[in-house]
């Protein structure tokens, strides 16, 4: 059943009240709470809090049983489904928020690995181009890194297989590539086909992401350290 009609602008206050009830109920099945106490939770008067509870009951989002000055409130399946609809809506909004990283100086690690023939041949075959012998390093804020990670969970990477160099007696690990477009934040019309590299062996800090592309991104996008790039996953 679709409950989107119940999460309309006139019901935002009711949904917010439902949200706080869920926070307070947690893993319990129900909660004992008075309208005065609920008013303190919502930072509203007792009268307004009582009206919110009545609205939630009328919507069928909660069940209520009055015991003296307190009431036992339980979230119904309809209320839980309404929370789920709002969660999905918020998740979609978050996924569409711009994912932005800041250009930062690298350690040359990406360039070293891109040149290795076992990787280079696979990049060309699986990504469809011979990449520039180097990667662009982007520094992410904690929020943007979390947004990126959540988006990556829903994508299937292009897998670059690990291999062994018998001459050197060395093995190289696999690399996951997530195809994307990158553009300057101040000029999002000029988009460049690229890939986010997920390298298992790396010395980068957790919020550094390496970007692989066919052209030299610093040159084609006229980038300097501190410039901001938008990433759009494909």
Main features:
234 residues; 3-stranded antiparallel sheet; alpha+beta; 38% helix
- Reported by name, the CATH topology of the largest domain is Elongation Factor Tu (Ef-tu), domain 3
Q: Tell me the total number of β-strands.
A: 12
- Enumerate the strands of the largest sheet in spatial order, edge to edge or round the barrel: 4-5-11-10-9-12
- What is the name of the CATH superfamily of the largest domain? Riboflavin kinase-like
What count of domains describes the coordinates? 2
The secondary structure category is alpha+beta
Q: What assembly state would you assign to the polypeptide chains in this entry?
A: single chain
Top-tier CATH class of the largest domain: Mainly Beta
**Helix count?**
8
Shape: elongated
Distance between the termini: 31 Å
Can you walk through the features of this model?
The chain has 234 residues and is of the alpha+beta class. It folds into two domains: 4-89, Arc Repressor Mutant, subunit A; 99-233, Beta Barrel (Elongation Factor Tu (Ef-tu), domain 3). Helices cover 38% and strands 29% of the residues. It has helices at 12-25, 35-42, 46-59, 77-96, 109-115, 117-127, 142-152, 217-220, and strands at 31-33, 62-67, 70-75, 99-104, 136-139, 158-160, 163-165, 170-172, 175-184, 187-199, 208-213, 228-233. Strands 4-5-11-10-9-12 form a six-stranded antiparallel barrel. The chain has a three-stranded antiparallel sheet with strand order 1-3-2. The chain has a two-stranded antiparallel ribbon with strand order 7-8. Helix 2 crosses helix 3. The model is unreliable at 1-5 (pLDDT under 50).
């Amino acid at each position: 059943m679709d409950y989107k009609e119940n999460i309309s602008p006139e019901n935002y206050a009711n949904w917010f009240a439902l949200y706080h009830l869920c926070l307070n109920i947690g893993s319990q099945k129900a909660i004992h709470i008075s309208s005065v106490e609920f008013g303190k939770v919502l930072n509203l008067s007792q009268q307004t809090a009582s009206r919110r509870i009545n609205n939630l009951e009328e919507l069928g989002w909660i069940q209520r049983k009055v015991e003296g000055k307190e009431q036992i409130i339980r979230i119904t399946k309809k209320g839980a489904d309404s929370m789920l609809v709002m969660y999905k809506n918020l998740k979609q909004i978050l996924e569409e928020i711009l994912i932005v990283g800041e250009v930062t100086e690298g350690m040359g690690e990406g360039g070293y690995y891109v040149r290795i023939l076992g990787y280079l041949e696979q990049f060309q075959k699986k990504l469809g181009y011979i990449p520039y012998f180097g990667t662009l390093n982007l520094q992410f804020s904690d929020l943007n890194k979390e947004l990126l990670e959540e988006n990556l969970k829903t994508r299937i990477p292009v897998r670059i297989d690990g291999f062994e160099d018998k001459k050197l007696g060395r093995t190289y690990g696999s690399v996951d590539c997530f195809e994307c477009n990158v553009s300057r934040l101040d000029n999002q019309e000029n988009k460049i086909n690229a890939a986010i590299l997920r390298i298992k062996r790396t010395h980068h800090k957790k919020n550094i992401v390496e970007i692989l592309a066919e052209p030299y991104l610093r040159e084609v996008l006229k980038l300097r350290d501190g410039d901001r790039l938008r990433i759009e996953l494909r």
